[in-house]
Amino acid sequence: MEPAMIRSAFLLSLALVAAAAQAEVSVRDDIGNTVKLAQPAKRIVSLAPHMTETLFAAGAGAQVVGTVDYSDYPEAAKKIQRVGGYSRLDLEAIAALKPDLVVGWQSGNAAAHLEKLKGLGYTIYVSQPNRIEDVASEIERLGTLAGTGAVAHAEAERFRERLAALRAQFGGKATVRTFYQIWKQPLMTVGKNQIISDAIRLCSGDNVFGTLEQMAPTVTVEAVIAANPETIIASGMGDSRPEWLDDWKKWTSIDAVKRDNLFFVPPELIQRHTPRLLEGTEKLCRHLETVRERRRKKQP
């Protein structure tokens, strides 16, 4: 090929890349709204820690110009400017950042705040993944909006492969009646549509409050005693086992207490809808395996 032709072909390829970068992008968010941008987002504000982490996983961390408190993973997320907390947003701080995309959280952000931002003309993507597999789709959708589709697709495929491996390993096991405790006062658990319930199902567990419609219902100690779970698993707030998990030891009629099946999963691994959810799910599954082993030892 002649040098002039090579140069022309090279310039054409650059033009095609540039055109693709400027092309309109569109996805459907978790509440069914079509989110459309004239070109991939260059300035993104994330209104939830899990969304910040997922944006980084999708290859879009460099475009995140604002986020909320507790957005601490990966390490680079700690350096991003804060716009309040997910439940107490600073709308003026968000506006000052001039985002071309705002990523919100349906069950965490106040609906009034999201409506206000939408009314001000900002493009809003709303996140609410209630099933583990939804995380992979969300990575891909955010990658589309940020123009990092290749990175996002590769990450989503890795997630799906690991998820399939966990299902193959822990699916079809003997059922374990499970009480998942988020907090002590008020005593909170997870309902049927919460993603942790999906993790419990993957591990062949049965959420004893899995018929409740609320995402994070409040229950009573009496209700837990009546449900008689074979294991109690808690997350709490930090990366260490909450002291209040051992408060159950005084309720000796509960099978979980009789067999010392009181376990902990770090909240950042299971309460955030991110790729690390699979780490938390695996820990949960292994706890249920311990319950089964102890059950077998009790049998004659």
Question: What can you tell me about this protein's structure?
Answer:
It is a single chain. This protein folds into 2 domains: 23-157, Rossmann fold (3-Layer(aba) Sandwich); 171-298, Nitrogenase molybdenum iron protein domain (Rossmann fold), CATH 3.40.50.1980. The protein is 42% helix and 14% strand. The chain has helices spanning 3-22, 49-57, 91-96, 111-119, 132-146, 149-170, 195-202, 221-227, 255-258, 267-270, 277-298; strands at residues 25-28, 34-37, 44-46, 64-66, 84-85, 88-89, 101-105, 124-127, 176-181, 205-207, 231-234, 262-264. Strands 4-3-7-8 form a 4-stranded parallel beta sheet, sandwiched between helices. The chain has a 4-stranded parallel beta sheet with strand order 10-9-11-12. A two-stranded antiparallel sheet has the order 1-2. It comes from Azospira restricta. This is Cobalamin-binding protein. Residues 1-23 form the signal peptide. Keywords: Signal.
